[in-house]
Amino acid sequence: MPERHTAENIASRLQECVREFGLTGKPCNNDTALVASMKTTFRDEMTERFQPGRDETAESLPMLASLLDPRYKKLSFLPRQLRRRTHTMLEGRLDDVPFKVSSRDDGDCATPAKRPRLEFMVTAPESSVEDDLQLYLAEKMDDATPALEWWRRNENRFPKVVQVARSVLAVPATSVPSERVNGRY
């Protein structure tokens, strides 16, 4: 690669290679021997590196981030029992989310007004963690909407899940050039 080895340039080059060599999907009958071999090697290498069948993979932060990205939340690349492990991991994180998240726009520390004693009879009960999660998982998604934008538009519908989504999806992928990773500046 003559250009800088940034994440964007590497991703662009990989996409060019995938298109050029027809590396989408599994080997087909009309693939040349070289292309079929490359697809098989690439798939085997990815399986070896990321080990999608291991419990540790299902309980990893990247899998949690995939579950919280509405475009990939079905986790169709994982076996069913591992998908369930990832769901359980998210449920555990949701248990730690406070029931009501206070928002203080002005920094005022005034005490809140007293709630009428019978208010519980006229207000909807607060949804449970399981309800929020099941509603999110059942929601139909538009594959084109970026995750953070989707969560911004739907934060009121899934108040507990959005708290975990913000903490997990807010971690940016690095764009540090690979030269820096090796210690060369």
Automatic annotation (TrEMBL):
<feature type="domain" description="HAT C-terminal dimerisation">
    <location>
        <begin position="133"/>
        <end position="181"/>
    </location>
</feature>
<dbReference type="InterPro" id="IPR008906">
    <property type="entry name" value="HATC_C_dom"/>
</dbReference>
<dbReference type="Pfam" id="PF05699">
    <property type="entry name" value="Dimer_Tnp_hAT"/>
</dbReference>
<protein>
    <recommendedName>
        <fullName>HAT C-terminal dimerisation domain-containing protein</fullName>
    </recommendedName>
</protein>
<dbReference type="InterPro" id="IPR012337">
    <property type="entry name" value="RNaseH-like_sf"/>
</dbReference>
<dbReference type="InterPro" id="IPR052717">
    <property type="entry name" value="Vacuolar_transposase_reg"/>
</dbReference>
